[in-house]
Amino acid sequence: MVMSGDQNAGQSHNIKFHYSSFERVEQLKYLGITLTYQNSIRKEIKSSFKWGSTCYHSVQNLLSPSLLSKNVKSNIYNTIILPAVLYECGTWSLALREERRLSVFENRVLRRIFGPKINEITGERRKLHDEELYELHSSPPTIRVIKSRKMSWVGHVARMGERRERRSANRVLWGNLRDINHLEDPG
To answer: Taking the CB of residue 89, how many other CB atoms lie within 10 A of it?
Structure first.
């Protein structure tokens, strides 16, 4: 798939790789998500929010303020809700707008899980601040998790080196594409 801001990029020809030809498409389904030539992931992130909300609602009765400890609630978030949201994050190319949306979603769900902060003297309730949420949750923010997963994959590809069977991924990583159409047949 040709990913470019230029809508005319690669329209007139197919891509050849290892003696195979691939047609140019405007979108491609990969790992359950739709990649577009514009690299827009808004719909995919919105879909992941939907899955995360569905998971939250399926366990929301367990998460009532007095039923479970904060550690158990945090574990439920990490094992049920967060994986649904981050399932496809390895293919995401996040812009600042998407990072903000993910943070807002995460904070909203964590505020529902942990409830309001109650002043012990006055009994007044107030919304938890972001810093208080992260202390209660004691896990890194979602954005950091996504970036860590992407860096882990990049490290994996970088360690592949120039071995014959993996040369293509390494060349793509380092931007050395000039000979990619002329690679010898791997098998």
So the answer is: 21
CA distance 146 to 86: 7
- State if pTM tops 0.90: no
- Measured CA to CA, the distance from residue 62 to residue 57 in angstroms comes to 10
Residue-level pLDDT at 134:
83
Confidence (pLDDT) at 184: 44
Q: Contacts for 142-151 with beta carbons within 8 Å, 24 or more apart?
A: 142/82, 142/85, 142/86, 142/102, 142/103, 142/105, 142/106, 143/94, 143/99, 143/102, 143/103, 145/82, 145/86, 145/89, 146/86, 146/89, 146/92, 146/94, 146/102, 149/86, 149/89, 149/90, 150/89, 150/90
Q: What is the CA radius of gyration of the chain?
A: 22
Q: How far apart are CA 106 and CA 141, in angstroms?
A: 8
pLDDT at 104: 92
Query: Burial, 39: exposed, middle or buried (Cβ in 10 Å; 0-12, 13-18, 19+)?
Result: middle
Strand partners, 17: 20
Which DSSP category does 77 fall into?
I
Residues in contact with 90: Cβ distance below 8 Å, sequence separation at least 6, in sequence order: 31, 149, 150, 153
- Distance between first and last Cα of the chain: 24
Q: Note whether 170 and 161 are within 8 A (CB).
A: yes
How confident is the model over 161-180, as a mean pLDDT? 60
